[in-house]
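Query form — protein Catalase

QUESTION: What is the three-dimensional structure of this chain?
INPUT:
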Amino acid sequence: MKEQQSRNNRQQTSKEKQLEQFTVSNDGKPMTTNQGVPVSEDEHSLKAGVRGPTLMEDFHFREKMTHFDHERIPERIVHARGFGAHGYFQVYESMKAYTKAQFLQDPEQTTPVFVRFSTVAGSRGSADTVRDVRGFAVKFYTEAGNYDLVGNNMPVFFIQDAMKFPDLVHAVKPEPHNEIPQAQSAHDTFWDFVSNNTESAHMVMWKMSDRSLPRSFRMMEGFGVHTFRFVNDEGRAHFVKFHWKPVLGMHAHVWDEVQKLAGKDPDYHRRDLWDAIESGNYPEYELGVQLIPEEDEFTFDFDILDPTKLWPEEIVPVRIIGKLTLNRNTDNFFAETEQIAFHPGHVVPGIDFTNDPLLQGRLFSYTDTQLSRLGGPNFHEIPINRPVAPVHNNQRDGMHRMTINPGQVSYHKNGLAGNSPSPVPEEEGGYAHYTEKVDGRKIRERSDSFKDHYSQASMFWNSMSEVEKEHIVSAFQFELGKVKSKDIRQRVVDMFANVDKELASRISEGIGTVSPGGQGAASALSSPALSMMNTVKSPRSRKVAVLADNGFSEALTGVLEQLEQSGIIAEIVSTKLGVISGEAGSQLEVQRSLLNSDSVLFDAVLVAGGRQSVDELLANPKSLDFVKEAFQHYKPIGAMAEGAELLLEPSSPGVVVAPAEQDSPLFAEELIEAIAEHRYWSRVV
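ANSWER: The structure tokens for Catalase are given below.
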């Protein structure tokens, strides 16, 4: 009921109204062919006699089978596995001083959006929780046309020039001779590429960090990666980088956890996003921008157009300008999430490009890809891709054309139609590219300002906490431990000695290579904003497994109420599904059994009190494993009275115990605080 009210109370966006035209329910409707012809029989093909051959004239069979044969479209080469949702964006303050982009002007205006999150390397059938970069692509349906901010959850990239993109993807994808491994970079060809293309050093540091193991799509940052331009009404430009800051903060899984999740629930991130929206826990992200005036382009010790470099937030502060809210799930995954077509070249007046050589290549690649995936040049007419702004031009025909354009004219300039549609002057809202002087020889080279491959990789390492550094070293050792070529392993160690010799030595210890020795880093700089330890901590929408059975303590009911009031989602996990009864007869419905559940699916564990309940749990070895695994993954654990008997280390950090029922209100408060903390890295496991 609460979920339905949440949906009903939402104001319908212009995009929703548009999509309603294409939403068709089959409930209670007569069956027809795709041409609208009523179908009298759908069980048997038309035959020449009951045992005779099927006849070619059976148009219904041919239409049904042909459509089935073509249900699958080519998956994206990268970002194949994705999941999306609808929402809206609202700017906090007018950005008129910096850009004439219409959707960044009025704080009272909401702009409908569709967001698609994704992994990069795996196929559509791979798991959600693999170690990988995550795509974070946002389509704004603005009144001035569609704007696509097509980014990742990391602010830099592996390569500097789009010429190298096919090589990178070929290297990280399954190796061509045996199509192994799927959705992971722990193999020879990827690390061979890395060790021979040192510009990848900075991005590899991010990928080996906890940033590549997000707790959920709702708890990861997003970045536009490239440097773009804001242009205002006066023609003044600022270089700009885009950031998405999750309201719930940045949080991650641990490596052992994600490996188990890939088997326990390969759809873990999809399910988390879907459930959060359905329950009214709408994911929120604040949009931030970093701005550099054009005249300051060359005042930094890095090239601001280099996509392997970030702008440290301590040097160029992030200005928070608006908020994105995801509040509606898709009605049909294929029609919306799979058919949506993003392109960094989809911009609106007020937003323009720079000479970032990776961005320049993407401006060609994305349109070219959609032509293959979506069957021709009319992919913009698929409902999910249609702008809410009216479309009028002289483009005609092509596969899957939906628009019917009457009249004899389809060219410009013309006299027969009064020269319509006619161009819109820039001062009336027409898009005009920023005027930039370009002067130089035609040449296949890279600027000397792009040749520093290590200083920001070193800065990233310097910015990490000791826990995060340990995770990075372990990630390198795991990945390189899968590399069969000792020469490649040694080259990688030698390469990262240029980032930090201690880092390289620690990696070397676990993979059988020669340590470079010594100490030193490419840079002494650090940026606290890069550490995930310095993030927002909130209990909201955290999931807690409540282990309980018949005879649970009645104090549990009050604790559950306090958890719900703080926004925590508690699920009862017991020895079997059904209803369990408390000591005084109260009842709770069991959502999961120990057979079909696991601690990796939750953020915390609470063991209920009650002698009978605890005895039932102790009799099932899975309950002890459940608590032990959560403890080993540094998660908050609570236990009420007798429930403490399931604990390994009752006095460890993040373990909250209520010795008696009368302590339950204070216990609940302490447990909520512990859950907000997310992990207890000081715990000895």
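ADDITIONAL NOTE: The first strand starts at residue 82 and ends at 91.
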